[in-house]
Amino acid sequence: MVDRSFGDMSLAELYDGLNPWGAGDDFYLDLVMSARAVLDVGCGTGKLLHRARRAGHRGRLTGVDPAAAMLVQARRREPGVEWVLGESRTMTWRGEFDLVVMTGHAFQVLLLDEELRLALGAVRAALAPGGRFVFETRNPAARAWGTWTPDQVRRFTGPDGGVVRVWHEVESVSAAEDRVTFTETFEGGRWAQPQVSRSTLRFLDGAALSGFLAGAGLTVAEQYGDWERGPLTPASPEIITVARPTH
Q1: N or C: which end of the chain has fewer CB within 10 A?
Q2: 3-state SS class at 192
Q3: How many CB atoms lie within 10 A of CB 150?
Q4: Which residue, among 203, 195, 232, has the nearest Cα to 9 in the 3D structure?
Q5: Domain 9-139+203-245 belongs to what architecture?
Q6: Where are the domains of the chain?
Q7: E-assigned strands of 13-120?
Q8: Per 3-state DSSP, what percentage of the chain is helix, strand, and coil (rounded to 5)?
Q9: What is the Cβ-side half-sphere exposure of residue 241, based on CA atoms within 13 angstroms?
Q10: How far apart are CA 48 and CA 227, in angstroms?
Q11: What is the pLDDT of residue 243?
Q12: Is 200 exposed, middle or buried (0-12, 13-18, 19+ CB in 10 A)?
């Protein structure tokens, strides 16, 4: 699980250990390597664009994230990328990118209709003619939050060599099951006391996603249920969407 509340520097340093490279990263890397100019919205510590640059991408790579601590990690990792502090809804690029991505379920932190519309409008404005906007969100039909329980503890080694334990606990689920609030607790490593981060995520189904995209002048071109490009079904863990500007 990706938690986008990593504003604290000590938590930002743990981000990559908690979220190691996986199939989703491979999926996005293939897209990035085939694009001339790429904007990564909610870039976090910058591992995707860093990997692309190291793999030989010579075009424009730009990452934007609202957490300054995350961008500190990104700049340390890859100075050859343009890193921008900001939010998706306030972006001002105009027709500059042939690929815009939102990875790590960052799309789900857009909780309100208005902020979602503003963010999608900014993405649409940033796309060059014929460009693509690619993102994923958890499929609400799969009810992933059912496994976010304190007994599901992950252990990994932090940058200081200490073992960190992390677990999640759901605090509330909205009546429509479209918003889930949960805590993420970190214990061990450099901390004398557990550190607790609280987040809320929004779960939209395929029809709702299509509606919001259409309102921003974007059309769903492809949609998958997993990182192997399998079909979207009620049991699919993800809704992976490729959208293009509406003609």
Answers
A1: C
A2: coil
A3: 11
A4: 195
A5: 3-Layer(aba) Sandwich (3.40)
A6: 9-139+203-245, 141-202
A7: 37-41, 60-65, 82-85, 97-102
A8: 30, 35, 35
A9: 26
A10: 16
A11: 98
A12: middle
C-alpha 106/C-alpha 221 separation (Å) is 20
Check residue 105 and give left, alpha or beta (phi > 0: left; psi -120 to 50: alpha): left
pLDDT of residue 1: 44
Contact between 83 and 74 (Cβ < 8 Å): yes
186, 166 in Cβ contact below 8 A?
yes
Q: Which residue has the tokens 């677990």?
A: 167
**CA diameter of the chain:** 56
Give the 3-state secondary structure of residue 126. Answer: helix
Q: Cβ(126)–Cβ(116) under 8 Å?
A: no
Segments in the chain below pLDDT 50: 1-7
Helix (H) or strand (E) segment spanning residue 69: helix 68-77
